[in-house]
Amino acid sequence: xxxxxxxxxxxxxxxxxxxxxxxxxxxxxxxxxxxxxxxxxxxxxxxxxxxxxxxxxxxxxxxxxxxxxxxxxxxxxxxxxxxxxxxxxxxxxxxxxxxxxxxxxxxxxxxxxxxxxxxxxxxxxxxxxxxxxxxxxxxxxxxxxxxxxxxxxxxxxxxxxxxxxxxxxxxxxxxxxxxxxxxxxxxxxxxxxxxxxxxxxxxxxxxxxxxxxxxxxxxxxxxxxxxxxxxxxxxxxxxxxxxxxxxxxxxxxxxxxxxxxxxxxxxxxxxxxxxxxxxxxxxxxxxxxxxxxxxxxxxxxxxxxxxxxxxxxxxxxxxxxxxxxxxx
Amino acid sequence: xxxxxxxxxxxxxxxxxxxxxxxxxxxxxxxxxxxxxxxxxxxxxxxxxxxxxxxxxxxxxxxxxxxxxxxxxxxxxxxxxxxxxxxxxxxxxxxxxxxxxxxxxxxxxxxxxxxxxxxxxxxxxxxxxxxxxxxxxxxxxxxxxxxxxxxxxxxxxxxxxxxxxxxxxxxxxxxxxxxxxxxxxxxxxxxxxxxxxxxxxxxxxxxxxxxxxxxxxxxxxxxxxxxxxxxxxxxxxxxxxxxxxxxxxxxxxxxxxxxxxxxxxxxxxxxxxxxxxxxxxxxxxxxxxxxxxxxxxxxxxxxxxxxxxxxxxxxxxxxxxxxxxxxxxxxxxxxxxxxxxxxxxxxxxxxxxxxxxxxxxxxxxxxxxxxxxxxxxxxxxxxxxxxxxxxxxxxxxxxxxxxxxxxxxxxxxxxxxxxxxxxxxxxxxxxxxxxxxxxxxxxxxxxxxxxxxxxxxx
Lengths: 328, 458
What we know:
The structure holds 2 protein chains of 2 kinds. Chain A is 82% helix and 0% strand. Chain A is mostly helical. In chain A, helix 6 packs across helix 14, helix 11 packs across helix 12 and helix 12 packs parallel to helix 13. The longest helix of chain A has 40 residues. About 11% of the residues of chain A have low confidence. Chain B has 3 domains: 124 residues, no CATH class; 29 residues, no CATH class; 199 residues, MetI-like (MetI-like fold), CATH 1.10.3720. Chain B has 12 helices and 12 strands. In chain B, the strands form 2 sheets. Chain B has a 6-stranded antiparallel beta sheet with strand order 2-1-12-11-10-9. In chain B, helix 5 packs across helix 11, helix 10 packs parallel to helix 11 and helix 10 packs antiparallel against helix 12. Chain B starts with 9 loop residues before the first helix and ends in a 21-residue tail after the last helix. The interface between A and B is large, with 93 and 104 residues.
């Protein structure tokens, strides 16, 4: 998952790109470099040559443009070549498929509008499946957040229970984060049979890794003073964490967990598609029935879309409140 | 400054305070309780107690054993009497007719008994009619399969131990040295070895079983091409296909992320207050971003797979469409936070609008743009694996195929290791590029400032 913290860091200090001005204002740039050079020439006692400096500057700009142009050319070449390779290895080509993008949605929509009267019924039918998908996401987020909290505390300098094991816990977090959910889910489906539990475990493991990394960044910014104060009165490690660290990091934790919940709803829908229950499973069934049952697929599309938008909005509001306080 | 209301007596104030404390305590107690109650509800809603019944211990054992070991099958066809040896019982792992590993003594002209030495005193003999199995500490089992009478087995005296499973038509013996099954049609011995079989060379390659040192000398004497060819076209592990699949997955992530960035950037200008004066267009673009983001990548994948068929292009397009919405949102927020002074400064020198954008706006958002693109490139490597498993492309497809066979668990383990390495490599690469391309970003140091709408969807 991309780390928002970096983005925050960058956006907080927009940089002034002097070179950009220099390109437009060669005269002024020249002047500044002239003064600089004249200071230096005072030592070497040589007359400043404006023409030379201008030539130097032009060469510098030329080189910069050349590098930029070369980089751009490489990028464009990679995009074009990559696209052609992907197009070649695809079953249908881009030019053929492009005209047919809206065929399937069109069919689904037209059939859904024909049977619009049945739509509420379908929505009711698939509502339990939606609840299951939401439950998978929520339970996985909860379990993942709990595991991520413990792992992140164990992997943060200054807070760790066993400081020498920090690298180990970091690697554990890295590996948890690197495993795509579908890998664990497919293996667990083989062992446990289809159902929500494999999906929940798979998402929880990935969540633990992703949240653990974010949490440990939050932890690093926590003040150690309360922790030291608590340890001076003989508090155990768990007490130090719960009473000294949690109050400082709580809002950030909750806000990251909410963000993860949004992502996990999407993930649990996808895992349903490979057989882990919930609305994704229903979607695959409805699709495999093919024409004539597209109204069911449309109902599922609608449910999924509305849920994701709703949860996005709610959690966005909640996160804003957590970050900026209730008054704003 | 709040003024203190002195009209309220201290006792009342204390009472107020105590009520507040009580409420706080209740809340801090209620929060874990609610979580616990929810987990209990999920525990029963997901039927976790029934999980023990659904758990398939046989599958679990196969999976674990197969992921780090392999078995060699020695099979006798009871009708023709022919004995064949094959690794994992697959044709591509079969020894050529008349050849066998040294622990199998094939029948010769002088004796028609095939002797399979499972070591530690465990020996199986395939005679012309009878199959014999010597088990140390137990005795010798004789089994005679025939078309008419099924499998007739003779055991040493005493009760049958539970590792022997005998019925009219089938005899199965499981020992720690290996397994023997005898049915009417065939007798088969499985012997287990640790490791992944034939990982480098298959049996038909001349380099199979050649030591590393010898291989190096051979490579140095001009056979490097042939050695690489035999490794690359290994039928068992398909290194070439796997490399292509990983490349496809990375390609999907690259094309999708960069394409989304390229489409989203111009659109993002249309969604900002400071660059798009027309409210309707602004509103429409924003709703478009919301819509594209709200329609889950699963739905996009399904819809696009219908139009383009399975393959990496479909995966790339699915990533592209989904991320266009996300990037549009991020970029437009970044553009709204752009400093107007720099644009004014550029304009004051007489710059035309295009130059104003190029030198006044783009440099300000480049760090955000690049860092987000690189973050998404990393996270989309994972998404591409998942989407590949659904649409059929890349390493995700190979993984699902290997899992569906339900026996190639060593390949599943191999792919999982490769996927983890791939994602970690991309993670490292994107971090490295970010630190190289964006000045001012030095790892994770420094306190985070409270600014901007920082939390974004990946």
